[in-house]
Amino acid sequence: MSLIADLCNILLPRKCVVCQQTLEPSEQYICTSCSIQMPRYPLQSIEDNEPLRKVWNFAPVQYGATLMYYRHQSDFHNILIKIKYKGGAQLGIKIGEWAATEITHLQLAEKIDVIVPVPADRKRIKTRGYNQAEMIARGMGRIMHRPVMNLLIKKDTGTSQTKLSQKARKENTIGKYEANIPQDWRGKRILLVDDVLTTGATIGNCAQAILATDSQATISIFTIALDA
Ligand SMILES: [Zn+2]
To answer: What is the pLDDT at residue 97?
Structure first.
């Protein structure tokens, strides 16, 4: 590690995004202990996997990846909760940087032109101050060297998704998203990013909204966690 990096670490200690312990110079974003405990998703292929199969129920998407399983008792679950609260924006960006670093070997960056976050509803953004998926997307964009564009809007708040059954969720999100894609950004390879994938309805319906506006676009997906 360079002298400058050493000095930065002394002045502004880098913290593990999960447990907040100060990182060793050899560690990046996440400490060794958390890294071992991470409920990692065993990703074999970005062309066929569980997250993709869930989203295929809703829309044709090309490549897909996720980092880990969503486990309610784990610290990894806590980071996803923390980024949803006010003040978690910076953490969201860090999580995005970490996620993009973790998937560098998949070479997903080479398969996309632009990163698009799944939108949150306006009411949520107003209380929280930001959209957590956008923060993750921004962090990923920094590492992947790809622009982040808000090409989608969520039309209406509706009923909270977590209170609904799988079937109801599917119905509840259809028609909730609208794409606004400038002419210059049509026909691009889009990476849709969200924090957690559950039924695939949300991200699938976002993909549908993009394809309804721009049939030449190709869409890939990435979420931090899979709630299997
Ligand atoms: Zn840690």
So the answer is: 96
